[in-house]
Design brief:
357 residues, five-stranded antiparallel beta sheet, globular, mainly beta
Length: 357
């Protein structure tokens, strides 16, 4: 993969067009939204968005008809935060709903998941799913990880509410990594028996040490490296899975490669790091050496822009559902989903693209 460095004065090209929040955004070649701006080679294309059930199935549920009466508008995605794509389904944590929205791309269905009893979800922040289909929800108000099986049946809750404020959860190699903002660390559990294994980092860092986790708000694990979005330090920090601090990316400020409100993170197969900044309302991309490559999004004025974005996730498995939105000049390599807590476009879908040979 070649370098993506660009002139910051030309980082954004957005051609605005009239849209309706309940319609799927489709583009002609004259309306394509790409990043960075020409003459830099295109790397990201905005594809479409999801905001309610009409974007998926074209109609509203009978439940919403009963509650809201017969009027226009589908079942809404209200205030999304975390998002996970698994086996053709999109799972969205909705902090106002007190549950998840589940979008089935194959069956074209949209449903609310609001479990009761022991599985009650109060304020879901993030979600991940293991290889067996078990669903792990980080509930910031309940202050536990709530576990459901592949059939959405409650299994177990993890964590001590007095010792845990979970902000993210990530499955990797039969282990569950949990960001604990209360204790400034990441908790690690065995997903076979749910026993607590250890905490990261392993050293007793003081709050002046670079390896100290001020406010671990989002996490990602790849190639035995733990990435932590440290909201309080305005940095993305890297650790070995033995708990040793390795390096950090970014700093506080409004310059290129700096952060104001870093939140969701993701890493692609080429070790490109994606970082959501809720202050800039964009996503910045860094190479493995921590150098800024480019960024996309921006304060909302139309499709492709962001409005208090929270989470970014990458998907390689469901390209077929979005190929129709890709400009014919490009090959789609993978999908990038970004959640917006406000505005008309609650889930933006972008594609990492390369020019056809």
């Amino acid at each position: 993969m070649g370098k993506l460095f660009l002139n910051p004065l030309f980082y954004l090209l957005i051609i605005l067009f009239t849209f309706c929040s309940s319609d799927v955004t489709k583009q002609t070649h004259d309306e394509i939204i790409i990043y960075p701006s020409p003459p830099e080679p295109t790397r990201i294309q905005y594809l479409t968005k999801f905001s309610n059930s009409l974007d998926i199935i074209g109609r509203r549920s009978s439940f919403m008809d009963y509650v809201a009466g017969e009027k226009e508008g589908g079942d809404p995605i209200i205030k999304p935060y975390g998002i996970k794509i698994y086996r053709g389904k999109i799972y969205v944590c909705d902090t106002i709903l007190g549950g998840l929205e589940i979008i089935d791309l194959n069956k074209k269905t949209f449903e609310y998941f609001q479990p009761k009893g022991f599985g009650t979800i109060k304020k879901p922040i993030n979600v991940d799913i293991d290889n067996e289909g078990n669903i792990y929800v980080a509930d910031a108000e309940r202050r536990e990880i709530v576990v459901f099986d592949e059939n959405l049946q409650f299994k177990k809750s993890l964590g001590n509410a007095a010792e845990l404020k979970p902000t993210d959860v990530f499955y990797y190699n039969n282990k569950l990594f949990v960001a604990n903002m209360l204790k400034h660390r990441v908790e690690v559990y065995n997903t076979k028996n749910y026993n607590h294994l250890f905490n990261l980092p392993n050293a007793n860092y003081s709050n002046k040490d670079p390896g100290f986790m001020n406010s671990p708000i989002n996490i990602f694990v790849q190639n035995d490296t733990l990435y932590v979005s440290d909201f309080g330090a305005f940095k993305i920090k890297k650790y070995t899975l033995d708990g040793e601090f390795v390096d950090s990316v970014g700093s506080y400020g409004r310059g290129l490669g700096q952060f104001v409100r870093p939140k969701g993170i993701a890493v692609d197969k080429h070790d490109i790091l994606y970082v959501v900044d809720a202050g800039f309302e964009n996503v910045q991309m860094f190479n493995a050496a921590g150098q800024l490559l480019m960024f996309f999004g921006g304060t909302y004025s139309g499709p492709g822009d962001m409005w208090l974005p929270a989470k970014v996730t990458i998907d390689y498995d469901n390209l077929e559902y979005f190929e129709e939105y890709v400009d014919k000049r490009f090959d789609l390599k993978y999908l990038i989903f970004v959640t917006n807590q406000y505005g008309p476009d609650k889930i933006n879908v972008y594609g990492y693209v390369e020019k056809k040979k």
